[in-house]
Write a structure and sequence with these properties.
289 residues, alpha+beta, Helicase, Ruva Protein, domain 3, Beta-Lactamase
Amino acid sequence: MSLTAKFNLVLIAVFSLGLLIAGALSYKILHDNARREVIERAGLMMESALAVRGYTVSEISPLLAPQMKDVFLPQTVPAYAATQSFQQLRKNHPAYAYKEATLNPTNPQDRPVEWEADIIEQFRNHSDQTEIIGVRATPSGDSLYLARPIQIKNGACLACHSTVEAAPKTLLARYGNANGFGWKLNDIVGAQIVSVPMSLPFEKARQAFNTFMASLVAIFLFLIVILNLMLRTIVIAPVTRMSRIADEVSKGNMEAEELSETGKDEISVLAASFNRMRRSLEKAMKMLE
């Protein structure tokens, strides 16, 4: 096997190991960054929902309070306001979702599906847990969800949800008396759940990973070419020439050209040593003659 082949085999082995390590590390970093980006988006949506709820309580409810004596207006309910605002968002971003899932809701639209009910039960069984983050499969791809418990901390909520007798007549006229009652202070009755698609951030991470790995391969190929040219120019060509001259001298051709001794590298030192050996051999042969 030639020196060039051995050199390239070692270089390829080292690069392959480096490429494997760099690929594993970069994939993990990009994957974690993409997941962190999705969680940040979900957190921002959750904070937006809380802002809408707060605005409804402080600005909308007092404004519409006089009309509530004649007719129940769901616009005064913080959960309804937050949900409706996100319904507008979903017109342009259907993969995003926000829901205030409740086990015994007044509005049937807030009733949880199976996976949402599991989250609520987890909060009820672990009252110290303040947040749940997970991933579930959807027809449009994986979706990350962020959930926080809905706990009755304000006694004002019980004005509509404690008993049928205590509930406003306008509320009963709109929703009936079958659901949304029996709530108690400090009970966890549901969960705020934000769902954010993971496809776009992870697709960007995949593209960045592919670009990074393709760049590494391109740099390696460039280095292979440069190093081979340097090896051929600095090592292979001088050694090949030295071998050819040594072969001629070994056959008795003392007229063969001398090797160049310019420089102070190992090849030049070897060339100088070879020239001295050749001169000594030539002198020895003349003395024998």
